[in-house]
Amino acid sequence: MEKITSKSNNLIKHTKKLFTSHKDRARFSQLALEGARLCFDALNSDCGADILLLTEDAAQKYPEKCRRLINGFKKAYFISSELASYLSETKNPQGVFAVCSQRKIDFYPENGKKYIALDKIQDPANLGAVIRTAEALGIDGAVFSGCCDLYNPKVLRASMGGALRLPVLIVDDLAAEINKLKTRGFSVYAAVPDSSAADIKTIEFNGSDICVIGNEGNGVSDEVKKACSGFLTINMLGRAESLNASVAAAIVMWEMLG
């Protein structure tokens, strides 16, 4: 296999930009991954397994895993340890990286199923945690609007690869999409920190349901609230006035499926 050792190599420069630039990820419809686990996740997803980059040390340390990855990707190159440190988003790089084509999203919510919707979630760790929890609990998919980049490396790590698997619909206008979904029979609830809203424990989720979690600082936007069928809240003890967005989403999804 050919070995790359220079930072000026076009593939290395391109991969670095995919790790650091949302604009480049959008422009090329690609993403960059780090670590054998995420690279295997890509092989078992709708993403295109384009290019594998790995160090010779990694190939010697994980021979069977690296052999499977090399066979699974269209192209594979060795890179130096120095380039692995340059590309890495972590303190102790494993020495395994990939460039993949982004998922072709053709998903749309189906009647009789339950979904989480996120309105302008900006923290990649929050977005990744929601995706990971949604997949773990068995939520049927997610609708995102105005959120941070699904392929941000922090989202990919926090979601433990779930961002490559969970059915996702990304829309520009969440309020308009909610109105459309209501005409298809969905009940859509906005989660709000308001004691006048219905206690989530009293709501019967019987079929086509969507719950909306809002922005970390501002909550669900007024436009989205107006479009929703109703409001729900998580009653809290103590003096806390609100919950972290990913924690609130986890509780809401648990109750939806309970």
Taking the sheet with the most strands, its summary is: 7 strands, parallel
* Count of beta strands: 12
Note poorly predicted spans: none
Helix content: 25-40%
Order of helices and strands: EHHEHEHHEHEEHEHEHEEEHEH
Beta fraction: 15-25%
Radius of gyration over all CA atoms, rounded: 20 Å
Helix count equals: 11
Shape: elongated
Note the gap between the termini: 52 Å
Class per helix and strand makeup? alpha/beta
Explain what you see.
The protein has 258 residues and is α/β, with parallel strands linked by helices. It is 38% helix and 21% strand. It is built from eleven helices and twelve strands. It has helices at 10-20, 22-28, 36-43, 56-61, 63-72, 81-87, 124-137, 153-158, 174-183, 222-227, 245-257; strands spanning 3-4, 30-34, 48-54, 75-79, 96-101, 114-119, 142-145, 168-170, 187-191, 198-199, 209-213, 230-233. A seven-stranded parallel beta sheet has the order 8-7-6-11-9-12-10, sandwiched between helices. It has a five-stranded mixed beta sheet with strand order 1-4-3-5-2, sandwiched between helices. It starts with a strand and ends with a helix. The model has no long low-confidence stretch (mean pLDDT 95).
